[in-house]
Amino acid sequence: MSKAWARLTCVGDKEKSKNRTHNLTEREWSMGRKTSCSETLADNIISSVHCRIRLERSEHGVDVVLEDLSSNGTHVNGTRVGKHNTYALQDKDEIGIGTPVVGGKAEHAAVIDVIPRIANFLRQARAKTLAAQAGGGMAAPPGAPPGPERAQA
Protein backbone atom coordinates (compact mmCIF):
# COMPACT_ATOMS: atom_id res chain seq x y z
CA MET A 1 0.00 0.00 0.00
CA SER A 2 1.31 3.45 -0.73
CA LYS A 3 -1.61 5.75 0.10
CA ALA A 4 -2.26 6.54 3.76
CA TRP A 5 -5.46 5.06 5.21
CA ALA A 6 -5.03 6.85 8.53
CA ARG A 7 -2.86 9.38 10.32
CA LEU A 8 -1.74 8.92 13.91
CA THR A 9 -0.80 12.03 15.91
CA CYS A 10 1.31 11.45 19.04
CA VAL A 11 0.01 13.72 21.81
CA GLY A 12 1.27 12.14 25.06
CA ASP A 13 3.11 14.10 27.74
CA LYS A 14 6.20 11.87 27.40
CA GLU A 15 6.39 11.95 23.60
CA LYS A 16 9.76 12.78 21.98
CA SER A 17 8.12 15.67 20.18
CA LYS A 18 4.47 16.61 20.59
CA ASN A 19 2.06 16.39 17.67
CA ARG A 20 4.38 14.17 15.65
CA THR A 21 2.34 12.50 12.91
CA HIS A 22 2.62 9.13 11.21
CA ASN A 23 0.86 8.37 7.94
CA LEU A 24 -0.29 4.76 8.15
CA THR A 25 0.34 3.25 4.73
CA GLU A 26 1.11 -0.37 5.61
CA ARG A 27 -1.71 -2.79 6.47
CA GLU A 28 -0.26 -3.17 9.98
CA TRP A 29 1.39 -0.61 12.25
CA SER A 30 2.87 -1.33 15.70
CA MET A 31 3.94 0.55 18.83
CA GLY A 32 6.34 -0.72 21.48
CA ARG A 33 9.90 -0.71 22.84
CA LYS A 34 11.31 -2.98 20.10
CA THR A 35 13.21 -1.20 17.37
CA SER A 36 11.28 -3.30 14.84
CA CYS A 37 8.04 -1.50 15.83
CA SER A 38 6.69 1.24 13.57
CA GLU A 39 6.79 3.63 16.55
CA THR A 40 9.43 2.98 19.23
CA LEU A 41 8.65 4.21 22.76
CA ALA A 42 11.45 3.99 25.34
CA ASP A 43 9.57 3.62 28.63
CA ASN A 44 9.38 0.63 30.99
CA ILE A 45 5.55 0.81 31.09
CA ILE A 46 5.55 0.08 27.34
CA SER A 47 5.72 -3.58 26.26
CA SER A 48 8.16 -4.75 23.59
CA VAL A 49 5.26 -4.82 21.12
CA HIS A 50 2.49 -2.98 22.98
CA CYS A 51 -0.25 -2.82 20.36
CA ARG A 52 -0.94 -3.05 16.64
CA ILE A 53 -3.29 -1.09 14.42
CA ARG A 54 -4.29 -2.74 11.18
CA LEU A 55 -6.77 -2.83 8.36
CA GLU A 56 -8.86 -5.96 8.61
CA ARG A 57 -11.43 -7.41 6.24
CA SER A 58 -14.86 -7.85 7.78
CA GLU A 59 -18.45 -8.45 6.76
CA HIS A 60 -18.61 -4.67 6.19
CA GLY A 61 -15.58 -4.68 3.89
CA VAL A 62 -12.84 -3.23 6.10
CA ASP A 63 -12.34 -2.20 9.73
CA VAL A 64 -9.51 -0.27 11.37
CA VAL A 65 -8.63 -2.52 14.32
CA LEU A 66 -6.43 -1.99 17.36
CA GLU A 67 -5.07 -5.16 18.99
CA ASP A 68 -3.80 -4.88 22.58
CA LEU A 69 -0.71 -7.05 23.08
CA SER A 70 0.26 -5.76 26.53
CA SER A 71 -0.53 -6.60 30.14
CA ASN A 72 0.28 -2.95 30.94
CA GLY A 73 -2.83 -1.76 29.13
CA THR A 74 -3.97 -0.08 25.97
CA HIS A 75 -7.00 2.20 26.22
CA VAL A 76 -9.34 3.65 23.61
CA ASN A 77 -11.35 6.69 24.69
CA GLY A 78 -10.58 5.85 28.33
CA THR A 79 -11.69 2.20 28.13
CA ARG A 80 -9.13 -0.58 28.61
CA VAL A 81 -9.04 -2.92 25.61
CA GLY A 82 -7.45 -5.91 27.40
CA LYS A 83 -4.55 -8.10 26.39
CA HIS A 84 -5.21 -10.04 23.16
CA ASN A 85 -8.52 -8.21 22.64
CA THR A 86 -9.30 -6.00 19.67
CA TYR A 87 -11.18 -2.74 19.28
CA ALA A 88 -12.71 -1.37 16.05
CA LEU A 89 -11.34 2.17 15.85
CA GLN A 90 -13.30 5.15 14.57
CA ASP A 91 -12.12 8.54 13.39
CA LYS A 92 -10.77 10.76 16.23
CA ASP A 93 -10.48 7.92 18.77
CA GLU A 94 -7.92 8.61 21.54
CA ILE A 95 -5.47 5.79 22.20
CA GLY A 96 -3.70 5.63 25.57
CA ILE A 97 -0.59 3.46 25.75
CA GLY A 98 -0.09 2.10 29.28
CA THR A 99 -2.47 4.63 30.84
CA PRO A 100 -5.84 5.95 29.66
CA VAL A 101 -6.26 9.39 28.14
CA VAL A 102 -7.99 11.51 30.78
CA GLY A 103 -8.98 15.09 30.01
CA GLY A 104 -6.95 14.94 26.80
CA LYS A 105 -3.77 13.99 28.72
CA ALA A 106 -1.72 10.79 29.09
CA GLU A 107 1.97 9.87 29.24
CA HIS A 108 1.88 8.10 25.87
CA ALA A 109 -1.11 8.79 23.68
CA ALA A 110 -2.18 9.21 20.10
CA VAL A 111 -5.24 10.33 18.18
CA ILE A 112 -6.17 8.47 15.02
CA ASP A 113 -7.49 10.35 12.00
CA VAL A 114 -8.97 7.88 9.56
CA ILE A 115 -8.65 9.16 5.97
CA PRO A 116 -12.10 10.47 4.87
CA ARG A 117 -12.86 7.76 2.30
CA ILE A 118 -12.20 5.05 4.91
CA ALA A 119 -14.00 7.02 7.67
CA ASN A 120 -17.08 7.44 5.46
CA PHE A 121 -17.06 3.74 4.65
CA LEU A 122 -16.78 2.86 8.38
CA ARG A 123 -19.68 5.22 9.27
CA GLN A 124 -21.89 3.69 6.57
CA ALA A 125 -21.05 0.15 7.69
CA ARG A 126 -21.77 1.03 11.34
CA ALA A 127 -25.12 2.64 10.35
CA LYS A 128 -26.12 -0.51 8.41
CA THR A 129 -25.20 -2.68 11.38
CA LEU A 130 -27.20 -0.55 13.82
CA ALA A 131 -30.18 -0.54 11.44
CA ALA A 132 -30.02 -4.34 11.18
CA GLN A 133 -29.93 -4.62 14.98
CA ALA A 134 -32.89 -2.25 15.38
CA GLY A 135 -34.83 -4.22 12.79
CA GLY A 136 -34.27 -7.50 14.60
CA GLY A 137 -31.18 -8.52 12.64
CA MET A 138 -28.36 -10.21 14.49
CA ALA A 139 -25.39 -8.32 13.02
CA ALA A 140 -22.84 -7.22 15.63
CA PRO A 141 -20.97 -3.90 15.48
CA PRO A 142 -17.38 -4.18 14.19
CA GLY A 143 -15.11 -5.48 16.94
CA ALA A 144 -17.99 -6.58 19.17
CA PRO A 145 -17.77 -10.06 20.68
CA PRO A 146 -20.59 -12.40 19.72
CA GLY A 147 -23.47 -12.25 22.19
CA PRO A 148 -25.28 -15.35 23.40
CA GLU A 149 -28.04 -14.82 20.81
CA ARG A 150 -25.40 -14.87 18.04
CA ALA A 151 -23.30 -17.75 19.38
CA GLN A 152 -22.76 -20.62 17.00
CA ALA A 153 -24.33 -23.95 17.92
Give an overview in words:
The protein is mainly beta and 153 residues long. The chain has one helix spanning 116-134, and strands at 6-10, 20-24, 28-32, 39-40, 51-56, 63-68, 74-76, 79-80, 86-89, 94-97, 109-114. It is 12% helix and 31% strand. The strands form two sheets. Strands 2-1-11-10-7-8 form a six-stranded antiparallel β-sheet. A hairpin with a 2-residue loop joins strand 7 (74-76) and strand 8. Residues 138-143 and 145-153 have low confidence and may be disordered.
Q: What spatial order of strands do you see in the largest sheet?
A: 2-1-11-10-7-8
Largest sheet: 6 strands, antiparallel
Q: End-to-end distance, in Å?
A: 39 Å
The succession of helices and strands, N to C, reads EEEEEEEEEEEH
Helicity range? 10-25%
Shape: globular
Low-confidence stretches: 138-143, 145-153
Class of secondary structure makeup: mainly beta
Strand % is 25-35%
Average pLDDT level:
79
Number of helices: 1
| Cα-based radius of gyration, to the nearest Å | 16 Å
**How many β strands by DSSP?**
11
Jot down its keywords.
31% strand; 153 residues; mainly beta; 1 helix; five-stranded mixed β-sheet; six-stranded antiparallel β-sheet; 11 strands
